[in-house]
Structure formats: C-alpha cells, structure tokens
Automatic annotation (TrEMBL):
The keyword Repressor does not apply. Keywords: Cell membrane, Membrane, Transmembrane, Transmembrane helix. The chain crosses the membrane at residues 39-62, 210-234, 266-288, 308-329, 350-369, 381-402, 674-692, 730-748, 760-782. It is found in: Cell membrane. It is a multi-pass membrane protein. InterPro entries: ABC3_permease_C (IPR003838), Membrane_comp_ABC_pdt (IPR038766). It comes from Actinacidiphila glaucinigra. Pfam families: FtsX. This is FtsX-like permease family protein. The keyword Cell membrane applies. One of its GO terms (cellular component) is plasma membrane. Residues 216-328, 678-782 form the ABC3 transporter permease C-terminal domain.
C-alpha cells in the first residue's frame, strides 16, 4: 500500500511551477463542470482584455489620425511663396449638411506639376471634384438633393485613406478656375498659394494643466471598472473549486499547495481569456469602419496597440489572476472534510478599508488649488495614484457596507427572505458582482462634477442672440449693387423669413489726403433700412428713410471726433500706408442724431455712421462689404440648407454661420467626445460582464434552485428572490457610488480652484444609467433562470 506524502509547503520556483501546472491540468481535465467554469472565466477575462487592448490602441490611433491631419494641413504658411510649376492656389470651401460637417477645398494648379493633397491621385480640373467614400455615399442618397445642388461638380475620383481622418469623414477637393492669388495686403484675390501640403515645422499645442488632468481622470475612470471585472471574472466558480481542493487535502496536499493549484486554474482561465479577448478585439476591429461615435470614426489598421502596452496587458492579466486568487484564498480555510469561509465567522472591519481612500486623498491634497490651464506641469503619476486609490477604496468599503446593511434584515415575504439570506451567506460575491458598476458610476459622477466646474474656461458666450436671428453671412463685394444682389438672393431663398442686411465700408477725415498716414483716423459707415438699424443701435421708433445716426464706440477705442453733424468725410480710404487716389467727399447731414450702440443678433457692437439708403447711395462706396443676419421660418426644417445653397451659388467659399449663444473650445470638445465614446464602451462592457457574472452565479445555484422547485417552491418566488439578490447589492453600490463620486468630484474641483458643488441632475443621470444597465442584464438573465429550475438540474456527475 502506497503512502501519500504531503506536498512541501515551500515557495521555491520548482514548487510553484509544479503546483500551477497541476492547477492547469485540473482546469483542462475537470470535465464539463471544470470546462464550464474555465470558459466563463475566459469569456469574462476576454471582455476585459478586449477593452484593455482597445485602450492600448488609443495612442497609436490618435497619432495616426493626427499625422494624416498634419500631412494635409495648409494653414501654417505665414507668407505666400512665389509661383512655380508645382505651387497650387487653394480656398477653403467647408460646408455642412443637416448635422454633418463637410471639409472642402477649392484648388487651382499654377503649373503642370502641381503638388497634390494626400489621397488624391490627380488634380481635379475646373468643375470636377474628388470626394471621400462617405461623401460619395451621402451624395447618392435620395434625401441629399439639396447637397447635390450645392456641390455641383462632376465626380472625378475618390480620396484615398491617407487623405482622411477616418472612413466616415465627409470631404472633397474641387477644381476651380475662378481662384485668384490674394495680394499681400489682402485687398484683392480670393485664394492662397502654397508650395506643398503638410504641417511644416508646426507642432500641436500642449493641452494645458486642466485638460491634462481631465484626460488622466477619464483614462482612470474608464479603465478601473475593467480591472475590477477582470478580478471578479477569475473568481468565477469559486465554491465548486474549493470543494475540489478539499478533496486534495484528503490525499495529503497542504494549504499552500491548494492555493497554488487554485492559482493555476485561474492562470489557465486568464490565459484562455487573453486568447478570447484578442479574438474579440481583432474581430470587432474589422467592423470599426461601420461605427461612428460622436463624429469620430477610425480605420481598422489604426486600432493597433503599441507593442509595449500589448505586452503589459499580456503579462498583467495572468499575473493579476494569480494574485487575486491567492489573496481570495487567504480568507478561506480548505480542510480535508470541507471548506470553511472565514468571512462568515468574523465581521468585516471598516478602519483599514478607509485607509485606502484616505491615502488617495493624501496624495491629491497637496494639489488643491494648484492646477490651472496655463500651467502644464501636472504630475500625472500623483494624480493617477490618488484617483485610483480613492476608487479602489470604494471597492473595499462595498463588501463591508453590504454585510453591515443586509445582516440587519430579518423576516419579510418569502422571496425577500431567500434573497437576504443568500446575500448574508456570501456577501462577498454580491459585492464583487456590482463593484464594477459602483466604480463606473462614481467615476462618472466625479468626472461630470469636474466638467461642470471647468467648462466656463472652455465654453464662452459668443454674444449671439439666436432668438433675434438664426443665421449670419458676411462677404466683401466689388460694388454696392453687388451687395444689394447678394441681399436679394438670400431674401428670395426658401425658408428665409426676413433679412437684416447692411452694407459697410470705412471713411476717414475729410482732409485725409493732406495728412500723414499715422494721423489718418477711420470710422465705419453702415447703410441699412430702419428695421435693420434698430437691431444695431437704439435709433428709436421715429427712424425714417433719409436719417443718419452717429454711434460712439462703446469700447472707447474708436474716434468719432471728426464725424459730427455737418462734417465732411472722405469715402476714399487708403489701402496701404500712403493715401492714394482721389478724395470722395460726403457730408454728414446737419440733422444727424446720436444713438447708443446695441449688441446685434450676431454678437457685434456696431459703431460709426449709421445711414439709411436715402441718406447715402451705396454706389458711392468704393470697397463695400455686405453683412446679413437671416431669420428662418420655424416651419422650414431645411431653411439653413437652402441658405447654404444660395451662398454656394454666389461664391463656393461663402460660409453661412448658425448663430449660437456659446462656443466650446475644440480641445475641450474632443476630450468630451472621447469621454462619451469611452463611457459607451465601458457601459457595454459592464453590461456584458454583469450578464456573465449572473449566469455564473445561477450555474453555481442550479442544483439548489432545482431542489427548491422539486419541494414545491413556486418559480415566481424563486424568480423574485433572484431579482432581490441583484437589487439589494446594486442599490447599496449605487448609494456608495453617489457618496464616493460626489466626494471625488469635490476633491477634483478643489484641485482646479473651484468650490465643491454637486450637480444632482448629473448624479441622477449617471445613477440611472448604471441602474438601467443592471435592469437590462437582469431581464436577460431570466430565461436561463427558468431553465435552471427544471428537474434535470438535480443531475450530478
């Protein structure tokens, strides 16, 4: 008869390799139950790995997008070059259609060897255009008739990937023979000459302290739930595993050996999860061209993790699986005759759990009031460590909270008793299941609090009043008659209810021809009807055609001392430093009245000489410009599209601006979009991970559920008990998330010099989103629950 000797309890490398290998063998040869647990772990870990690989690909993805953007850039040239056979004239012709922005550029070659934008094989001839695949698809749609009328060019090709930021970008290059090089003083011409496309020596501006901190917090908040879920996934099927380990104790294995064997099983599941996650990542990457989130799309080959980050994921996930398993086994006594869980015999202590968030607060406290947008010297490691500790602190407090609250419940309806008793028996599993939701919601609340605190630095008031006018157009014209034609064209546009139009030019002193250039003073001449002038200044109800009003500059910079009633002005304003040409005198009527400036619908404060058409013939203005403010018909949803078509017929480079009350910094907008995209992906991961967790817990309890049904327990009672088992820890987790998120938000606001404030509307939205995901997952878990209550659940192997 052979004797089984206990495994040595030492921690040598050979011992570790042997026991980990034995755990892997148990995972592979454990029959249907063993493989079910392993596959659940692999799926759970795989979802987290796919998210981590996506996050690891973000730097390369954004770098590739930025490089393509810089390679096609044309905005960095300070002085126009001389004309050569390779230079090109260009003029921006951006537009929008419905809610989509379209990047456009008009081109004209100077010679027979023109430089080409990236992705363009040949310079489009006049009247032709090359378009992005997405724009081609949009133009072909039946509802794009107005856009086809606006971009009335012959298709001559498609822009290649290297010329686009992403597959869904809408862009075109069109040839035009009407481009004329702009003069040095800008008085003539409509296009700029460039020697090549590309960024030259320019570099992107740094984000600044506040935006850098925002990016750091976003990364931490989005990835923390992933890490939490991976830690949860490697503990799937823990009860069955522990019973198998108890059998090993019967044949002589000591407690350390059983822990290492358990770690080996988790290691195999995590390695399989790496394979599954890589597969999910590679498969979903191929469909990235079909997905556009918040106007951002990417090419599949851009979504490539950096080698270093990919290696970090490949090493960190198995390492974390082993570490989490060993740590979890410290709370379990696996004996030859069974398993004793120490957690149920001893109440959890709170004091050491509070030390973790306090340590995080200690790291962030020195930064209170020191983070500003002007100072880019934020210590990313200090901020990251502090926020991570605060969020990890929530996951350590949650088990204590669940145990303390649920442990007080007694009595109640039968479903409630079954649910509370189950949670009381294993509060750790209940807390683990919702810890990811808790961290995600807390982080989202904190981020939203920080966003509301700093957005005033990046969201500024434009001064526009969309209630008085909805669109604006401005253009330099050759004559007053042309300005009137432009105004009439917009007045005849479908969907335009009213046009507030003025024709503007400058005037100088009547004796400007005899003055030195430094002594010449300018004032603005504005010609419009009384209805329009009332939107620019407080001219009163008595305004009539033929009246003239003198308006002082409200900012105090403009000089109106030479423009008084009866004074003579010279309409011939110098284009260069030296006065040239013949004076064109115009006398201000003696009955001209003064008026105060008023902020116009397009956010401007107009000053100078405001005249009605009968008082000043616009034909006398030598260098006029037209400025229009358009009121749209609320019943015409495509009014702005008709206005853009009118502008394109007048001049393809003419832009119609939609008046908005605020303007948001582009960098801030990009970061906000990144947050929304990441939050969407994280919520999807949380939903999938919760579903896997619930299925794993139901599988563990399948036999118990079947026994209860066999003894006559109604299925509705068991179904309600399972719902309560989910609802209780979720409610406690969300309550903790509200407190923790509000606290972290207050800390972050204090760091940027803002007073602590809780945006309860945002708290409600974030909490509702988290609860909604849980409700959806719970509903999806009901069909498997009904199946597991069948009598065949009593079968065993």
């Amino acid at each position: 008869m052979s004797t089984t000797h206990p495994s040595p309890g030492g921690g040598t490398l050979a011992t570790w390799v042997r026991d980990l290998g034995l755990g892997i063998r148990f995972a592979v040869t454990g029959g249907r139950e063993g493989w079910t647990r392993t596959l659940l772990t692999a799926v759970g870990v795989g979802l987290g790995v796919a998210m981590l690989l996506l996050a690891a690909a973000v730097p390369a993805m954004m770098g590739a997008r930025n490089d393509r953007g810089y390679d096609r850039d044309y905005s960095w040239f300070n002085e126009p070059p001389k004309r050569t056979a390779s230079t090109v004239l260009f003029a921006p012709a951006d537009t929008s259609f419905r809610d989509d922005s379209i990047r456009g550029l008009l081109l004209k070659a100077d010679g027979d060897r023109p430089v080409l934008p990236p992705g363009v094989e040949a310079m489009p001839a006049s009247g032709e255009m090359v378009v992005s695949p997405a724009l081609k698809k949009l133009l072909d749609q039946p509802g794009s008739k107005l856009l086809r009328e606006r971009l009335d060019y012959r298709p001559a090709g498609v822009i290649g990937d290297q010329g686009l930021l992403g597959p869904a970008e809408l862009a075109y290059y069109a040839g035009s023979d009407k481009l004329v090089a702009r003069s040095q003083d800008g008085s003539t011409g409509n296009a700029t000459r460039i020697p090549h496309f590309g960024r030259g020596e320019s570099k992107p501006e740094p984000l600044g302290g506040v935006l850098t901190m925002l990016v750091i917090i976003i990364v931490v908040v989005l990835l923390m739930p992933v890490a939490v879920f991976i830690g949860t996934a490697v503990r799937f099927g823990g009860e069955r595993r522990d019973r198998r380990l108890a059998a090993l104790r019967l044949v002589g294995a000591d407690s350390r050996t059983t822990r290492r064997i358990a770690a080996g099983e988790a290691l195999f599941g995590s390695l399989l999860g790496l394979v599954v996650g890589t597969g999910i990542f590679l498969i979903t990457r191929q469909f990235s061209t079909e997905v556009t989130l918040y106007d951002i799309s990417v090419f599949p080959y851009d979504i490539t993790p950096g080698p270093g980050l990919a290696a970090l994921v490949a090493l960190a996930v198995p390492g974390a699986a082993v570490a989490v398993t060993l740590l979890a086994m410290r709370g379990i006594a696996v004996e030859p005759l069974g398993v004793v869980r120490k957690a149920t015999a001893q109440k959890r202590r709170l004091w050491w759990r509070l030390l973790i968030p306090l340590a995080g607060l200690g790291l962030l406290a020195p930064l209170f009031g020191t983070v500003s947008q002007e100072d880019a010297g934020v210590n990313p490691y200090q901020v990251t460590a502090g926020v991570v500790l605060l969020l990890v602190g929530l996951t350590t407090v949650l088990p204590w909270l669940v145990e303390s609250v649920v442990g007080r419940f007694r009595g109640g309806p039968l479903p409630w008793q079954l649910a509370t008793r189950r949670v009381q028996l294993d509060s750790s599993a209940a807390a683990r299941m919702v810890s990811g939701v808790t961290v995600a919601v807390a982080g989202a609340i904190a981020l939203q609090s920080l966003f509301t605190g700093v957005q005033s630095d990046f969201v500024t008031a434009t001064g526009d009043d969309p209630d008085r006018a909805q669109l604006s157009v401005s253009q330099s014209v050759d004559s007053g008659a042309q300005a009137q034609r432009v105004e009439k064209a917009f007045a005849d546009t479908p969907g335009i209810r009213d046009v507030l139009g003025v024709i503007q030019d400058d005037a100088v002193q009547g004796n400007a021809s005899t003055l030195k250039s430094e002594d010449i003073t300018y004032a603005t001449l504005v010609v419009g009807d009384c209805a329009t002038l009332r939107e620019l200044a407080r001219v009163g109800a008595g305004c009539a055609d033929g009246d003239v009003f003198l308006v002082q500059d409200p900012g105090g910079y403009g000089d109106m001392s030479f423009a008084k009633p009866g004074d003579t002005l010279d309409l011939n304003t110098p284009v260069t430093d030296k006065y040239t040409g013949t004076p064109q005198p115009w006398r201000i009527p003696a009955d001209a009245r003064t008026a105060r400036s008023r902020v116009s619908p397009d956010g401007e404060q107009t000053w100078g000489v405001l005249a009605t058409p009968a008082a000043l013939d616009v034909a006398a203005l030598p260098s006029p410009s037209v400025r229009l403010m358009l009121r749209t018909d609320p019943g015409s949803p495509d009014a702005v599209e008709h206005a853009r078509n009118t502008a394109a017929r007048i001049d393809p480079t003419l832009t119609v601006f939609e008046l908005t009350a605020t303007h948001e910094s582009r960098k801030f907008t990009t970061i906000r979009r990144g947050l929304f995209i990441g939050a969407t992906a994280t919520l999807a991961l949380i939903g999938a991970s919760l579903l896997v967790s619930m299925l794993e817990q139901l599988r563990e309890r399948r036999k118990l559920l079947a026994v209860l049904v066999a003894f006559g327990t109604r299925r509705s009672v068991l179904g309600l008990s399972v719902l309560w088992q989910t609802a209780l820890p979720v409610a406690l987790g969300l309550a903790l998330a509200i407190v923790g998120g509000a606290g972290l938000g207050a800390v972050l606001r204090t760091m940027v010099g803002e007073s602590p404030h809780v945006d309860w509307a945002s708290v409600g939205v974030m909490t509702g989103a988290g609860a909604g995901v849980v409700v959806l997952v719970t509903l999806l878990s009901l069909p498997p629950l009904w199946r597991m209550m069948r009598p065949d659940g009593l079968r065993t192997e």
